[in-house]
Every structure is written in structure tokens, then in C-alpha cells.
Sequence to fold (184 residues):
Amino acid sequence: MIADVLADTTSRMQRAVEAAKEDFSTVRTGRANPQMFQKVLVDYYGTPTPLAQLASLANPEARSLIVTPYDKSALKAIEQAIRDMPNLGANPSNDGNIVRVTMPELTAERRKEYVKLVKSKGEDAKVHVRGIRRKAKDELDALKSELGEDEIARGEKELDALTRQHVDLIDDAVKRKEAELLEV
Fold:
């Protein structure tokens, strides 16, 4: 029973860490990266649609990206969605067939802002992991009537170790992203 709770908790915590890493990849560094545009939602015929479903993204140079829409009528909407995306600072231009996105050079001040943003997202992810821990602890407490207190205490120690491990993974991902952002 305790093993089931811990296995479920481990998988949920791993998914939370993966989601955090995926979220970090949307914060831009000095180079243009198609992953930065994962969260761009385009208003396509009144429905918010992810950019990846409406266009292909190509990265011909370090600081530029070419967005080729599958439907040319969505060109203006794609351009507007990229321009309106917060924390991107991209400058899209459209030539009638494609949207060219040029990423401006990052200033030291802007890099620091991105580091703060990544740290904030890291804290949110750690709070999520701790929330998963709290639910698992409640599940373990519910098993107290069926199992002995020693077994529950052992399970809680394992749960704490799992939580510590996943929080450390998030911290490592934050440090890697911070180093990537501050790299000139």
C-alpha cells in the first residue's frame, strides 16, 4: 500500500519536474529557438490555437526564425500573436508568405529579468512538488488504521527523500537555465 502511494507520488513529481523544464525552455536566451514559441496562442477564427498547429518553424540563423503558415489567411494573426507574446521581445515582419522573427540582442538588464522569471517559475514548480507531497502524506495518514505507525513513519521518510530529490532536480534545472541566460 505504501509502495503504491510512493510510486504514484514519484511519477507525479517527475511529471512536475518535466513540466518545469519545459516551461524553462520557453524563456528565451540569446538565440532564437522554436521551443520559445510553444506557448504562443494564435487567434485562429476565434479559437486560441497553438502556433505549432498553424505553421512550421525554421531556424536559419542564430537570432532569426522563419514561421511558414499552413494557411496564408492566418499570417496577420500569427504576426500579431508573436508580437503580443510577453517576455519574448520579438520583432515579427511578414512578407505575404512567411513571418520572419528577429530576436533582439539581450542586454545585461534583460538577462537579469529573465533569470528572475526562471527563478520564479522554479519556485512555482517546487510549490507544486510540495503540494504533491502533501497529498501523498494525507494518503499515508489515511492508512494509519490499517498499518502500523512505524511503517507509516518509514513511508513518510521515503516521501521526504523523494520530495528533496525532485526539488533538487528543479534547482539544478534553474541553475542550468540561469547559466545559459547569463552566457554572453
The CA atoms of residues 111 and 181 lie 6 Å apart. DSSP finds five helices and six strands in the chain. The chain has a mean pLDDT of 87. Residues 108-142 form the longest helix (35 residues).
